[in-house]
Design brief:
Layout: E1 10-13, E2 16-19, H1 27-35, H2 40-49, E3 56-59, H3 65-74, E4 80-83, H4 90-99, E5 105-107, E6 110-112, E7 116-122, E8 140-148, H5 149-156, E9 160-163, H6 169-172, E10 183-187, H7 190-193, H8 195-207, E11 211-212, E12 221-225
Length: 233
């Protein structure tokens, strides 16, 4: 049946219930969800690498599908720390958490180099929104609170970092102190920031003891891991 006429309130994908009637979802998003394609690359990486004892820091939660998967896998939602800056996603995140009976540690703010307040570009397609968004006639710029990335790492001591922040990765990761982090699931965005900044990011992670695992990498979602010794623990 065409999505034009069929729009249930809730659907299930990858074992997670999602608020399918959420107003910010576009036709393309709904089609991906129905086909099981939405966030499928991230979930494939996490399914093979996320351990029950990991502490998760997720930057860029979207609808919360990955957050919910992590909460279920670890069995302790309090160890899943979630950040989402887009104000138009906050209601959907809360509804989706409630639908699945999980309560990750949700923070409705951005992660940036420094704490304070930042300009966030809200695109009509929420998956293209971010600090590095490309302003256009359909983009709304809003000021949102931000937490310093290194401060978050020191506060929560995550072992697993998940990041999908539409180009913001090139600002936060190179040179960052994140001694507790042993695993990184990272979506890179060469279409937004270019190949050279991402290459420098990868080189920095490799220089800090991470290995790029091609066996777990899917499309633009790349996976890095290092031992506790390399992480300085």
């Amino acid at each position: 049946m065409s999505l034009r006429f069929w729009r249930p309130e809730v659907v299930e994908t990858h074992g997670v219930k999602l608020w399918f009637a959420a107003p910010m979802l576009r036709k393309g998003h709904r089609r991906q969800i129905i086909r099981g394609e939405y966030e499928s690359a991230e979930l494939a990486v996490l399914d093979g690498t996320l351990a029950a004892d990991d502490t998760v820091l997720e930057l860029g939660a979207g609808l919360g599908l990955v957050s919910i998967f992590c909460a279920k896998r670890t069995g302790d939602a309090a160890r899943v720390h979630v950040f989402e800056a887009n104000p138009y996603l906050h209601e959907a995140l809360k509804r989706n958490f409630a639908l699945n009976g999980v309560t990750p540690d949700l923070h409705l703010m951005a992660a940036a180099k420094q704490g304070g307040e930042v300009t966030f570009n809200v695109d009509r397609s929420y998956t293209s929104s971010g600090l590095h968004g490309r302003p256009s006639e359909t983009t709304e710029q809003v000021r949102v609170p931000a937490a310093g990335f290194e401060e978050l790492v020191q506060r929560f001591r995550p072992t697993y970092l998940i990041m999908d922040i539409e180009g913001g990765e090139v600002d936060l990761l190179p040179g960052a102190r994140m001694d507790s982090v042993r695993k990184i699931c990272l979506e890179v965005h060469p279409d937004i920031v270019g190949d050279e900044p991402i290459s420098r990011l990868v080189a920095d992670l490799l220089a800090n003891g991470f290995t790029l695992h091609f066996s777990h990498t899917r499309k633009n979602v790349v996976y890095f891991e290092r031992t506790a010794v390399a992480a300085g623990q």
